[in-house]
Design a protein that fits this description.
Oligomer: single chain
CATH architecture of the largest domain: 2-Layer Sandwich
Shape: elongated
Cofactor: Mg(2+)
GO molecular function, one term: ligase activity
Pfam family, one: Phe_tRNA-synt_N
Subunit structure: Tetramer of two alpha and two beta subunits.
Number of domains: 2
CATH topology of the largest domain: BirA Bifunctional Protein, domain 2
Radius of gyration: 36 Å
Family: Belongs to the class-II aminoacyl-tRNA synthetase family. Phe-tRNA synthetase alpha subunit type 1 subfamily.
Length: 348
């Protein structure tokens, strides 16, 4: 070993001893330690610069020694920093003041869609409805054909569909009626279910429409089920959701999977039925569609339509939420604006 290497090895050993014995007395001493060993003009910087004077066959061993020294210095510096932070009265540390108020623990809030969804489920659970769920990607049979909408049926044009694949067709479901079909195919009667979930339609996004939204559809199938049962069920829902003073009316309509079919309106909650821009000066707001299950749909699912009858209904959760909380823009539900969501903290 050369004379230079002997000298530098002894010097490094001395540096190791100095570093291992270092205990900071304060911030100034710790900073002086950092500058001395780890600074841009410090000892380690000079030692690494001297690598070029070391014989090539010794550079690998010498580099390992220097890296070990550097790690020791960095570790000692970080230990010193932690000691000062934990030491009362030192800069960077502080004594615990138990008289100070606790740090506020901010709680989130449930989304308004989730609030209304849970409320709808709770209302129908009280009268014996259970929850059924299904896939958001559906085949043509469950989304269209089984619901009395065969290929080229004009009712398909009422729903602008996102197709995932063609021939055979797979789509993002346009309604949760597909869940009703899957339950009916199981053949376990009677059936009394609600089907909440997200659905998708290729629509232009605006204050009143979006490419995805949430639905709750209901289905009741048993012997001797009538339209009167449907009306009383929905009367009960409206009074529980919007209050006993809410008025209800039914208007004849058309759906391929129900016959007869109807749209159900409630008196406008914003103007009290007097007429405003929300209800288009009519005093009424549509909230859902409904009707008696079409006999062909029952037969498609293997249910004897001469013995069993049933009713179905479907509503958009966003529509119910907008009415309940008097929200005028559908896009607010999916923009994740904290200022909007904070308004529902008290509703948790």
């Amino acid at each position: 070993m050369s004379s230079y290497m002997e000298d530098i090895t002894q010097q490094i050993a001395a540096y190791k001893t100095e570093i291992a014995a270092f205990r900071p007395s304060g911030e100034a001493a710790l900073e002086a330690f950092r500058v001395r060993f780890l600074g841009s003009k410090g000892i380690l910087k000079e030692l690494f610069a001297g690598m070029k004077t070391v014989a090539p066959e010794q550079r690998k061993d010498f580099g390992l020694v220097l890296n070990e020294l550097k790690q020791l210095a960095e570790e000692q510096y970080h230990n010193g920093r932690e000691q000062l932070q934990d030491r009362p009265g030192e800069s960077g540390g502080r004594e615990a003041d138990h008289t100070l108020p606790a740090e506020p623990q901010r709680l989130g809030a449930r989304h308004p869609i989730s609030l209304v969804r849970s409320r709808i489920i709770s209302i129908f659970e009280k009268i014996g409805f259970s929850i059924a769920e299904g896939p958001e990607i559906e085949d043509d049979w469950h989304n269209f054909s089984a619901l009395n909408m065969p290929e080229n049926h004009p009712a398909r044009d009422m729903q602008d569909t996102f197709y995932v694949a063609k021939a055979p067709d797979w789509v993002l479901r346009t309604h949760t009626s597909s869940v009703q079909v899957r339950v009916m195919e199981q053949g376990k009667l009677p059936i009394r279910i609600i089907c909440p979930g997200r659905v998708f339609r290729n629509e232009t996004i605006s204050a009143r429409a979006h490419c995805f939204f949430h639905q709750v559809e209901g289905l009741y199938i048993d012997e001797n089920v009538s339209f009167a049962d449907l009306k009383q069920t929905l009367y009960y829902f409206v009074q529980e959701m919007f209050g006993e003073e809410s008025r209800v009316r039914f208007r004849p309509s058309y759906f391929p999977f129900t016959e007869p079919s109807a749209e159900m309106d409630i008196s406008c909650l914003i103007c009290g039925g007097k007429g405003c821009s929300v209800c288009k000066q009519t005093g009424w707001v549509e909230i859902l569609g409904c009707g008696m299950v079409h006999p062909r749909l029952l037969e498609n699912c293997g249910i004897d339509s001469r013995r069993y009858t049933g009713f179905a209904f479907g509503m958009g959760i966003e529509r119910i939420t907008m009415l309940k909380y008097q929200i005028r823009d559908l896009r607010l539900f999916s923009e994740n604006d904290v200022r909007f969501l904070k308004q529902f903290e008290g509703a948790v």
